[in-house]
Amino acid sequence: MNIILIGPPGSGKGTQSKFIINKYNLLYISVGDLLRNISLINKDDFSLKIKNYIDSGKLLNDDFILSIINNYITKNINNKFNGILLDGFPRNLNQAYLLDKLKIKFNIIIEFIIDYKLIINRLSNRLIHEPSGRIYNNTFNPPLIPGFDDITGEKLSNRIDDNIKTIKDRLNIYNDNILDLRKYFFDKINNDNDINYYLINSGIDNIILKNIIYKILFLYKK
């Protein structure tokens, strides 16, 4: 079972991904996480260039991103995983065409739909525990002690790209691409009954959202 989660930044893809990969033992791939790890671990000019792109909200070259994904899959996929979950990729039509070159069949595509005002509220109030990737929100999911991680007690931080201007730029980029991307997957479905596309409102209660996703995946496995 190979899954793609699509949605604007802040729509809950990362949160739901953790639930899905733990439930179904899938290899998790988040392009954003992979790029951030490269920019944090290495301090050369190449890594600095990636960091500057991330901080500005711009997108990197599609071929370059696909090479990172392919390399990660090659190094990490093995028989202990039941499939792959791609979080937030492809983001545009060209990336979708490039993804086809990997010859991996993605059976389920879930697109998250959410009000953009809620996204801006979520992201502008987001706090990150960088070593673990745990995410908090001052409004919806605050840490027990303001500014500190619940598990380790370490200080939380804000992502540089979680400012209103960059968030709006990222949402505009998403808007420019989603209709073509959606049509691309709908065309694939017309030629393959084993591919399913779901549109879900991810602005609802998190427990309800998890139950909806669980039912979708349960029905597919049956």
Question: What does this entry look like structurally?
Answer:
- With 222 residues, this protein is α/β, with parallel strands linked by helices.
- It has one domain (3-115, 164-221): P-loop containing nucleotide triphosphate hydrolases (Rossmann fold, 3-Layer(aba) Sandwich).
- The chain has helices spanning 13-24, 31-41, 45-56, 62-76, 93-100, 116-124, 164-191, 206-221; strands spanning 3-6, 27-30, 84-87, 108-113, 126-129, 134-137, 196-201.
- Helix 2 (31-41) packs across helix 3 and helix 6 packs across helix 7 (164-191).
Provide a short characterization of the protein structure.
The chain is about 50% helix and about 15% strand. With about 220 residues, it is α/β, with parallel strands linked by helices. The mean pLDDT is about 85.
For the structure shown, list the relevant keywords.
alpha/beta, Rossmann fold, five-stranded parallel beta sheet, two-stranded antiparallel ribbon, 50% helix, 14% strand, globular
**Cα-based radius of gyration, to the nearest Å:** 17 Å
Strand content: 5-15%
N-to-C span: 12 Å
CATH domain class name: Alpha Beta
- CATH topology heading: Rossmann fold
Care to count the β-strands? 7
Domain module count = 1
Q: Give the SSE order as H and E letters.
A: EHEHHHEHEHEEHEH
Q: What is the helical fraction, as a range of percent?
A: 40-55%
Largest sheet: 5 strands, parallel
Name of the CATH homologous superfamily: P-loop containing nucleotide triphosphate hydrolases
The oligomeric state of the chains shown is single chain
Question: Please, how many helices?
Answer: 8
Mean pLDDT: 87
Strands in their spatial order, largest beta sheet = 2-3-1-4-7
| Secondary-structure class | alpha/beta
CATH architecture: 3-Layer(aba) Sandwich
Shape: globular
